[in-house]
Amino acid sequence: MTVLLTRLFGAWRRARRTRPGAPTKSAAARGPLAVLLMQVRFDLLASFRNPRARFFTFVFPIVLLVILAGVFGNGITHVDGVAVHLSKFYVPGILAMSIITVAYAGLVVTVASARETGVLKRRRATPVSPAILLGAQALSTLVTTAGVTVVLLVIGRLAYGVALAPGALIAIACTVIVGTLSFACIGYALAGLIGSVDSAQPIVQATVMPLYFISGIWIPNVNLSPALRSVASVFPVEHLASAMHLASVRSGLGAALSPHDLLLLAIWGVGAAAIAVRRFSWLPSTATA
Amino acid sequence: MLTNSLEVAVAEQRTATNNTEDAVITVRALHKRYDDKEAVRGIDLEVARGEIFAFLGPNGAGKTTTVEILEGFRSASSGTVEVLGADPAHAPAAWRERIGVVLQESQPEPGLTVRECLELYSSYYHAPRGVDETLELVGLAKQAGQRATALSGGQRRRLDVALALAGDPELIFLDEPTTGFDPSARRAAWNVIAGLRERGKTVFLTTHYMEEAERLADRIAIISAGQIVATGTPKTLGDRHLSRARITFTPPPGCAELSPAMAERAEEQPNGAVVIHSATVAADLHELTSWAIEHGLDLNDLDVTRPTLEDIYLTLTRSQTPTETRSQT
Asked: How far is CA A140 from the centre of its chain?
């Protein structure tokens, strides 16, 4: 026991010594995992210091939720046959929207601007592997969407009485992970297709805004025509929202998880990844001479 | 005679082998074709360990393409390229440990402070130079806590250099490192670059400033329209050392005639000055000053000049049509 404690203390002291400035092994010398964690740390730091990202990630979804639930909250709608107040309906819908905002809209702008400003090219000139840079971006995006999920679920619980059973929480966690990674792949594919940062934002909004209306995010899709619903069901937005909605009205993991929606999200993700691999470039699109 | 030329050939081969051994960069018959044009049309380059090599040329001459091939961002259409013993297009991560790159244009990492940028880039290398040491080297120690995006243009460029030096590389590519600097910032940057040579680093420098190349470079190559048009030291480039000197002076009005031999070569300028192109400066000056003393003339504005590096550069790159140059600027 004492030996174990001494060992632990020694390990703790060694860990303490790896402060910046102290003579120590570099992250690369400690292995790829250390570089990955370092990159995740700085990616998160950079995004939390970005006022645009802070607003669209945390402030905007909460404001939207409060407004929608405040105006329409007393109405009744049906989710998978269960009657719920609209205030409860909006929590999973806005959660789906927030994940798309972070993993798709935010990522496209971040990647396109890092490429066009030469940041990606400069990183590519160093020994860091592309796998670490991409992995770090996936991880830091997951950390952010997980944070948004926690915030929205706490607000949903306290303000709108959306109580989730453990099984439903696990289903939501799975949906957050699959949804985040799929939309990140779609984001990388789009970033590879567009040439400038200026066109990133409008293209992102043009692709998701119409889908928000027909995918059960802002308007319950039981109110929509079958034609619109079948259009929406082709796209990933509807499946992310649908998986979130299902989890919000079921308690057991088996009933709360929607393998069909997650599969469709994954198919979109893999398809987009194939495009991203072909189209992605580390060099600014203007550099040819 | 035969034995003699054979000996010469063997000796030449030996020198060539030696050169290759301490060559950091070797380029042979490099071509790069894009869809519609040939940007690089068969160039040879050799950069030795520990030297500062300046690569000059007008915009659109194939300079950036060549640099990007050497850095491993683009692959050659044909020819051989060897940088630190490897083909840059297929070099492993370990090769990137040994090079540092300052791009022509790049923005700082968004959201991070100067120190954080360096901590991040240092984490990519197995044996980085210390963060504080690098900041000190480029003169950014005082700005360590500032957001990188809040730095002035010159400070940003110094951060670019710091990030390139984070891994303590052997070979550093500097693509127009001082563009847009004020004169004092440029002097400071030159000191940093000259300091790299003192540490035994090899520097591959591109620049549009002839003074920069002249001040820093051990050797210079000029590329024009995809081909190397001259290589040499700043003193010998384009046979600068062999070209005729210009002797100029203004004889006072109504003074005695020059000797007939000299008068024949003298070209009178509209402003009254006289120019003599001279291949034998000492002899000509002796004759000229003897004549001046004999007639009691001071010749206070007597001047002997050689063509500047810029003169040489402009002559060598003139073949590239001006319109082509302008469209790429």
From this structure: 9
